[in-house]
Automatic annotation (TrEMBL), chain A:
UniProt cross-references to SUPFAM superfamilies, sorted A to Z: Adenine nucleotide alpha hydrolases-like, DHS-like NAD/FAD-binding domain
Protein name: Electron transfer flavoprotein subunit alpha/FixB family protein
Family annotation (InterPro entries): DHS-like_NAD/FAD-binding_dom (IPR029035), ETF_a/b_N (IPR014730), ETF_a/FixB (IPR001308), ETF_alpha_N (IPR033947), ETF_asu_C (IPR014731), ETF_asu_C_CS (IPR018206), Rossmann-like_a/b/a_fold (IPR014729)
PANTHER family according to UniProt: ELECTRON TRANSFER FLAVOPROTEIN ALPHA, ELECTRON TRANSFER FLAVOPROTEIN SUBUNIT ALPHA, MITOCHONDRIAL
Keywords: Electron transport, FAD, Flavoprotein, Transport
Domain Electron transfer flavoprotein alpha/beta-subunit N-terminal: 3-182
Organism: Marinobacter koreensis
SMART domains: ETF (SM00893)
Keyword Flavoprotein: yes
Automatic annotation (TrEMBL), chain B:
Annotated function: The electron transfer flavoprotein serves as a specific electron acceptor for other dehydrogenases. It transfers the electrons to the main respiratory chain via ETF-ubiquinone oxidoreductase (ETF dehydrogenase).
Residue ranges of domain Electron transfer flavoprotein alpha/beta-subunit N-terminal in the record: 23-211
Keywords: Electron transport, Transport
Protein name (Swiss-Prot/TrEMBL): Electron transfer flavoprotein subunit beta
GO biological process annotation, one example: carboxylic acid catabolic process
InterPro entries named in the record: ETF_a/b_N (IPR014730), ETF_b (IPR012255), ETF_beta_N (IPR033948), Rossmann-like_a/b/a_fold (IPR014729)
Amino acid sequence: MSILVIAEHDNSSLKQATLNVVAAAKAIGGDIDVLVAGENCGAVAEAAAKAEGVNKVLVADNAAYGHFLGENLGELVAELGKGYSHVLAAAGTTGKDFMPRVAALLDVAQVSDIIRVESEDTFVRPIYAGNAIATVKSSDSIKVVTVRPTAFDPVAAEGGSASVEQCDVVKDAGLSSFVKEELAQSDRPDLASAGIVISGGRGMQNGDNFKMLENVADLLGAAVGASRAAVDAGFVPNDMQVGQTGKIVAPQLYVAVGISGAIQHLAGMSDSKVIVAINKDEEAPIFQVADYGLVADLFEAVPQLEEELKKVL
Amino acid sequence: MKVLVAVKRVIDYNVKVRVKPDNTGVDLANVKMAMNPFCEIAVEEAVRLKEKGVASEIVVVSIGPKAAQEQIRTALALGADRGIHVETDEEVQSLEAAKLLKAVVEKEEPKLVILGKQSIDSDNNQTGQMLAALTGMGQGTFASEVVVEGDKVNVTREVDGGLMTVSLNLPAVVTTDLRLNEPRYASLPNIMKAKKKPLDSMAPADLGVEVAPRLSTLKVEAPAARQAGIKVADVAELVDKLKNEAKVI
Ligand SMILES: Cc1cc2nc3c(=O)[nH]c(=O)nc-3n(C[C@H](O)[C@H](O)[C@H](O)COP(=O)(O)OP(=O)(O)OC[C@H]3O[C@@H](n4cnc5c(N)ncnc54)[C@H](O)[C@@H]3O)c2cc1C
């Protein structure tokens, strides 16, 4: 078996999710190659070559891949993928965008968002917002799979010594072009891989009040997330949404503040190790999944939390 | 310009999902079904494009059992002009759905195809992208804004890092995210009018597509339940527990 893992990166650094996907590839077994497709992405390729368990890194460095357009990546990966038994990518917005194109071009099914590998052709994945867990078997010759990064412990980022090869396949489908990007700037850890996440919901009332959560987050080295209601209301940007249709997080500690605990929200955080809920409604469903529940008005509890943490940290 | 919207009949998003005791799937008997929420957003976007004079005709298509006609009628009540029902009782996986939709696209030749980014049952997030690949179209996935300008469409996409705007040649495929719009409700007169709008029914074979699933579901289980926790009395106790019991801070 031979597995092609598509690296997730921003042209300058390798995203941790790639290491989680390589871990999933190891669970399948076989030779693991990593494709770094991007523009001026040499540093990413070097980083990928150091990851544990990687056999070879292919670098497709071309302007056509600079913005990870699904049309171009789809064609590239479909062509390279023909030589492999499995093609894997992280189930982030990039992988979700181009991988189904790869599957369609190869005329195979895609298995989305796997959380476990049972064997080379059988995978476990959540369906119905995580209310059911399906075990599915693929009968296709090439398995195109997206991986939920939080479900696999990452391989070591250092220690490997894979060879790096240039790949000069250029696929520019000519269907789409990049216009602009508005990326959130934050010094806090990345939401999807942070060890601690503190999220606010509709109960926060407005965007300014998220400052309270940021203060706590900065004490803990945490990332700040949100419910859909908080994003829809315009309190915070979309990249902070946790849930079935937002980001999936599984930190050591998840603190839900003013969040009721709808199933779509739980789908994104219920694999967290420890869950804390702060909500003034003692009947809120979030308390059914919380390890520690505090029934309180968040406008009193969160500033108190900041003070208490200052004492003990 | 003609807009094609694909909609799916799924379990209502408010229903508590139950896994069947024999682990073969999810219990859908006597469960409330509805249009997939992302598909509602797709229909709404098409209707808004028509109201702006950008779209001239909205064709809505659904693949599924006889009862999926209810969802087509809902879309017609919301403002779609005409329905196409590809009727099948078989399980239709994303690749087959994309192939069926491709056949519909070839017949209808829409300038824009709008789909939901994922359906809340299988949570696959695949069909729109597969359709785009099979028809050689560009794709604007997870859209939060769609602006048609001449023979291009600019799509602002919700991505992990924030927002990204792409420009696509028409015809193109757009898949909707939650912030694209807030769908309206159908009015009673429009529900009545929708009953008279044309709805064509056909079988997958009429479109020359064989529905043959590549993935087989071996079992479906309930997720591991979290153990119920405790309520703490105040913030001081919470911090103490986090530090000394859970040891996570
Ligand atoms: C297709 C679809 C996809 C979805 N995807 C997602 C998703 O990915 N992520 C997601 O989060 N949601 C998602 N949702 C929405 C989800 O169903 C809920 O509507 C949403 O999660 C509710 O957000 P909330 O808990 O912040 O708001 P609410 O449900 O309104 O809860 C607010 C909570 O704040 C508490 N509160 C208010 N004031 C205070 C105070 N002063 N102190 C303490 N507590 C207070 C209230 O008691 C209440 O429990 C989706 C829905 C659909 C239909």
